[in-house]
Amino acid sequence: MKFTAAQIAGILNGDIEGNPDVEVFKLSKIEEGTEGALTFLANPKYKPYIYTTMASVTIVNKSFVPEHDISTTLIKVEDAYQSFSKLLEYYNQVKMNKVGIEQPSFISDTAKYGSDVYIGAFSYIGENVSIGNNVKIYPNVYIGDNVSIGDNVTLFSGAKVYSETIIGNQCVIHSGVVIGADGFGFAPNEDGSYAKVPQTGNVILEDNVDIGAGTTIDRATLGSTILRKGVKIDNQIQIAHNVEIGENTVIAAQTGIAGSTKIGKNCMIGGQVGIVGHIVIGDRVRVQAQSGIARNVKDDEVLQGSPALAYADYNKSYVHFKNLPKLADTITKIEKKLQNE
């Protein structure tokens, strides 16, 4: 896709200094700009690059006044960073604005879908599936029977949505996500083997939920595994059966949450955190990366370590952790001295 400086200025309500007809077809950092690229200058640290960049168009603040000759066409706006972000959002909308049903794909006769839907090649839509308006289903997506999908949802290539799942509006499901696989439920037999416990529940994603690539969310044994409104899940995360995650909680990569744990609203959980099952974590909790949570957590706690301690206590203890070899040497010297007396 190509855009002229004039078209971009129109989108951003900006003023042009330079050639309004110059075209751009790619994005770049200002220090790496080449012909045909669009970039921006917001951080004063990068100001020297505007005099050397080969980018065709650069978005700058209205307050910017060149001190030397420049070759790039300027688009002046109130806030260059926000304007560039707005432009990225617009670019993504245009790029992803696919409509229609590609072949080969399979759509059950009992499935229903709204307007402006895109269904990519080799996708499978099962029986009694309900799909809303402006849903984008990229190639090789599997949607099982009785799934409900709201409006303005995007499922990227390779996503798998098992039966009975409910997905709200404005959700994004990235590649390799598996929603609704069986929870890890097995009962021991007398002979030491394990019998599978049927997983008869489902998964519910409320509105504005984002699920990162490679993440797995298990169906409930009974009832539902639930991600509330605004939850943001990073790549490669495991969410077990009957977990509930509160509104606007964000979780970083490689975290694992065991079954039936309840996490509150507006929590921030770092990468590689392990959370045991059947506990309750309050609202606005902060958990540092690589922590292990094995107890109930009150509202507003900040935790670190494995098992996790209060963040301030962990930092105080760490001073002693790193000095343990010196302390051990000191104790050994004292013991020897006492033995010789």
From TrEMBL:
List, in alphabetical order, the Gene Ontology terms for molecular function in this entry. N-acyltransferase activity; UDP-3-O-[(3R)-3-hydroxyacyl]-glucosamine N-acyltransferase activity
Pfam families membership: Hexapep, LpxD
Q: Is Acyltransferase among this UniProt entry's keywords? A: yes
The record's catalysed reaction(s) read: a UDP-3-O-[(3R)-3-hydroxyacyl]-alpha-D-glucosamine + a (3R)-hydroxyacyl-[ACP] = a UDP-2-N,3-O-bis[(3R)-3-hydroxyacyl]-alpha-D-glucosamine + holo-[ACP] + H(+)
What CDD domains does the record point to? Answer: LbH_LpxD
For this chain's UniProt record, which GO biological process terms are given?
lipid A biosynthetic process
Q: Which UniProt keywords apply?
A: Acyltransferase, Lipid A biosynthesis, Lipid biosynthesis, Lipid metabolism, Repeat, Transferase
Q: Where does the record place the catalytic residues?
A: 241
GO CC, any one term: membrane
EC number(s) for this protein?
2.3.1.191
Involved pathway(s): Bacterial outer membrane biogenesis; LPS lipid A biosynthesis
Tell me the InterPro entries matching this sequence.
Hexapep (IPR001451), LpxD (IPR007691), Trimer_LpxA-like_sf (IPR011004), UDP_GlcNAc_AcTrfase_non-rep (IPR020573)
Q: Does the keyword Lipid metabolism apply?
A: yes
Residue intervals of the UDP-3-O-[3-hydroxymyristoyl] glucosamine N-acyltransferase non-repeat region domain: 21-89
* Record family assignment: Belongs to the transferase hexapeptide repeat family. LpxD subfamily.
List the HAMAP family hit by this protein, alphabetically: LpxD
Spell out the subunit comment: Homotrimer.
What job does this protein perform?
Catalyzes the N-acylation of UDP-3-O-acylglucosamine using 3-hydroxyacyl-ACP as the acyl donor. Is involved in the biosynthesis of lipid A, a phosphorylated glycolipid that anchors the lipopolysaccharide to the outer membrane of the cell.
Q: What is this protein called?
A: UDP-3-O-acylglucosamine N-acyltransferase
Q: Which gene encodes it?
A: lpxD
